[in-house]
Write a structure and sequence with these properties.
Elements (H helix, E strand, L loop, with lengths): L1 E5 L9 E3 L2 E7 L2 E7 L2 H6 L12 E8 L2 E11 L11 E7 L6 E6 L18 E6 L4 H7 L6 E2 L9 E7 L3 E6 L2 E7 L8 E7 L3 E12 L1
Organism: Microlunatus aurantiacus
Protein name: DUF1080 domain-containing protein
Length: about 220
């Protein structure tokens, strides 16, 4: 196994924003990287084309296939997004060179149990999706049992540790060292690629302590 750690006190070597802005920052006194959609996308983009489960991330080169990914995430609303923005932030992985295929797991802290959301939002604090064919809305329609999302005891404006354990056949997510979600037979057909610090509409996200272990 090979482990690479990025403190994210600055942008990692070779990292490139893809349809986002990214810069060094600090939140609660902790050095980190701030990632957000640009204003032209936020105010003039189209959902399902420019945002909402799209390739909007800071790309960190990695050639990741299987292993574990872990990152600390702190997110909040930026006051620019739609009413249904939920401070979306998380990880993308196996991003291909064209940036048009990848898998992702992200958090919706405003759906976390700490905010006391109404049903069914209380079961929608973490989400898996596979781009381009399986965004969250198609997953909900096709699998109404909610197998690709789950509730969590989280909230906005707090540091949350998201860890993904990825094999050829499964993806298991833990949040703050507690089990969160398992996806059997993930829906992506892209076996290897880069890693992304993912953010979506209406969100200001901060990332620290990215660790990549390739198996």
């Amino acid at each position: 196994m090979i482990t690479i750690h990025h403190s994210l006190a600055d942008l990692p070597d070779g990292a490139r924003p893809h349809r986002v802005t990214a810069r060094p920052a600090a939140i609660e006194g902790r050095p980190c990287v701030r990632v957000e959609l640009p204003d032209d996308v936020t105010f003039h983009g189209q959902p399902g084309v420019d945002y909402v489960d799209q390739p909007t991330f800071l790309v960190v080169p990695g050639g990741f296939t299987t292993g574990t990914l872990s990152v600390d995430v702190w997110s909040r609303l930026n006051g620019k997004g739609p009413a249904d923005a939920r401070a979306f932030a998380g990880l993308a992985y196996r991003i291909n060179k064209q940036r048009d295929a990848f898998e992702s797991v992200y958090l919706r802290p405003l759906n976390g149990l700490k905010t006391d959301p109404p049903p069914p939002r209380d079961q929608r604090a973490i989400q898996y999706f596979s781009y381009p064919d399986w965004p969250f809305d198609r997953l909900r329609e096709t699998y109404p049992d909610g197998r690709y999302e789950a509730g969590l005891d989280i909230g906005p404006e707090e540091w949350i540790t998201l860890k993904l354990s990825v094999t050829a056949d499964t993806m298991t997510a833990t949040v703050n060292d507690s089990y969160a979600l398992t996806v059997d037979r993930p829906l992506g057909s892209h076996p290897s690629g880069d890693i992304g610090l993912f953010v979506d509409i209406g969100t200001e996200a901060f990332f620290a302590n990215l660790t990549v272990t390739a198996s």
